[in-house]
Design the sequence.
């Protein structure tokens, strides 16, 4: 066990996102995002809630920084609310200095506390005005140009920030926002959920536009800011580890690989290899956009590091016959049990999440092999707990299930670093505190810190919060 280690310059900390924690949606001139309007629609959020107050972090930056310090966090990954900085979002729309000043101060306060900021430019809260003006993420010309302008405003205002992330999880924005309709803006072919949307085409267009917008922002950073400020920039991708349902069936083995291609390589292949995966082109044909030469040049080679969000694993069973037009998995199904009675992991509060730490090591190796052993920052990892929200507070604070999840996942990552040559250099636990868990509202808690929503958003660190500092201290090599 003591043979496991992480590199001496390894950084760890906690992660959050603006809409999930900030609240104060009208303060200091902030404009509405697609999540504000989505939450107002009936039956979109499980508990009928929204980010109106959330954890009130907009008004508690000092308290949040003190919490990070107390827990030993060396770095903090958070996102900016685009509509605080440019309330309407567009490149010809006014900049809101009050919103920008808020983040400049926050960054300076973090640095003064010795905490390294990792900034996500967009964690799903697209300006609502851009959605209404030209279809938001669906617009291949306008959206990348507006995003690139917003990115430039942020780079310019915060030269002291050396770690930038363009987008969080384009898979979720595309598939959950434009195929399943479970996330904003809620478009889908399912007419019980939405009057508008086409699940067979829109998610692939949105994914393409996010890649191009990412590429545009990276080009600006590298040409206009990196030479003087230094610093790095990348996109964050999510994806599960996979195992074949029947390891002796070559079709299940292939399907398990194809599931990762449809989730991760959809974005990572264009970035590292310059083209969409062959498996996706084969299934989707011309529903998957084709890169123009200009677009390809923007996207290919556009990551300074690999940003990895990872939570779970699945067994994968291939499907026979033609996939449905709205299929986004790659003509396969996922299961919790394998043919031989294997169980992927214990249930949590999140239907899609079951802990399986060996999968973390396996996926780190898979990614490293396919993309040439890039530097990896794990930008999210964590778990909910079945029934946690219904427990008395004393019991919530004793979150041994979460503590064990972190212990096993961090050790699996250290194993990949020590034994497999994986170049992992940073880790962020999701999340610093319980927060607005999107379509699940506040019923699902992912925090290492309990937030008492009924008593002024007061924060109470859970047991898991105090486990990470000694754990990383035992693994990170001393100079
Ligand atoms: C991530 N899935 O979302 C997000 O980046 C966070 O904002 C979120 O709070 C966290 O994970 C926990 O959910 C995901 O259905 C949401 O596979 C859904 C899925 C994956 C990631």
Sequence:
């Amino acid at each position: 066990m003591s043979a496991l280690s992480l590199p001496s310059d390894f950084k760890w900390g906690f992660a959050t996102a603006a809409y999930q924690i900030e609240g104060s949606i009208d303060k200091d001139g902030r404009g509405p995002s697609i999540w504000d309007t989505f939450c107002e629609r009936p039956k979109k959020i499980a508990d009928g809630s929204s980010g109106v107050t959330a954890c009130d972090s907009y008004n508690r930056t000092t308290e949040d920084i003190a919490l990070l310090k107390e827990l030993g966090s060396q770095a903090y990954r958070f996102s900016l609310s685009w509509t605080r900085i440019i309330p309407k979002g567009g490149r010809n729309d006014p900049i809101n200095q009050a919103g920008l000043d808020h983040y400049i101060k926050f960054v300076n306060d973090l640095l003064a506390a010795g905490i390294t900021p990792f900034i996500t430019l967009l964690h799903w809260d697209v300006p609502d005005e851009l959605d209404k003006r030209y279809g938001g993420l669906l617009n291949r010309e306008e959206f990348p140009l507006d995003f690139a302008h917003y990115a430039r405003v942020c780079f310019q205002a915060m030269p002291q920030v050396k770690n930038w992330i363009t987008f969080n999880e384009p898979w979720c924005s595309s598939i959950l926002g434009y195929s399943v309709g479970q996330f904003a803006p809620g478009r889908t072919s399912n007419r019980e959920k939405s009057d508008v949307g086409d699940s067979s085409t829109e998610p692939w267009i949105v994914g393409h536009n996010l890649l191009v917008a990412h590429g545009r922002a990276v080009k600006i950073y590298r040409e206009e800011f990196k030479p003087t400020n230094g610093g790095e920039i990348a996109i964050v991708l999510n994806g599960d580890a996979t195992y074949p349902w029947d390891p002796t069936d070559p079709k299940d083995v292939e399907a398990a690989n194809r599931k990762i291609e449809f989730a991760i390589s959809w974005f990572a292949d264009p970035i590292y290899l310059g083209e969409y995966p062959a498996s996706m082109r084969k299934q989707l044909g011309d529903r998957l956009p084709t890169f123009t030469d200009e677009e390809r040049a923007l996207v290919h080679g556009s990551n300074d590091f690999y940003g990895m969000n990872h939570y779970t694993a699945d067994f994968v069973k291939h499907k026979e016959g033609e996939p449905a037009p709205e299929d986004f998995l790659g003509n396969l199904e996922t299961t919790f049990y394998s043919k031989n009675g294997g169980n992927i992991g214990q249930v949590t509060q999140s239907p899609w999440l079951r802990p399986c730490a060996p999968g973390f090591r396996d996926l780190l190796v898979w990614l490293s092999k396919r993309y040439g052993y890039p530097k990896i920052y794990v930008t999210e990892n964590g778990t909910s707990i079945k029934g946690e929200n219904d427990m008395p507070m004393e019991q919530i604070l004793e979150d041994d299930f979460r503590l064990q999840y972190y212990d096993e996942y961090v050790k699996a990552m250290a194993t990949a670093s020590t034994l497999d040559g994986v170049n992992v250099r940073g880790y962020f636990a999701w999340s610093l505190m319980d927060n607005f868990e999107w379509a699940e509202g506040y019923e699902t808690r992912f925090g290492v810190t309990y937030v008492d929503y009924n008593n002024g958003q007061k924060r109470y660190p859970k047991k898991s919060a105090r486990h990470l500092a000694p754990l990383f201290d035992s693994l990170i090599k001393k100079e």
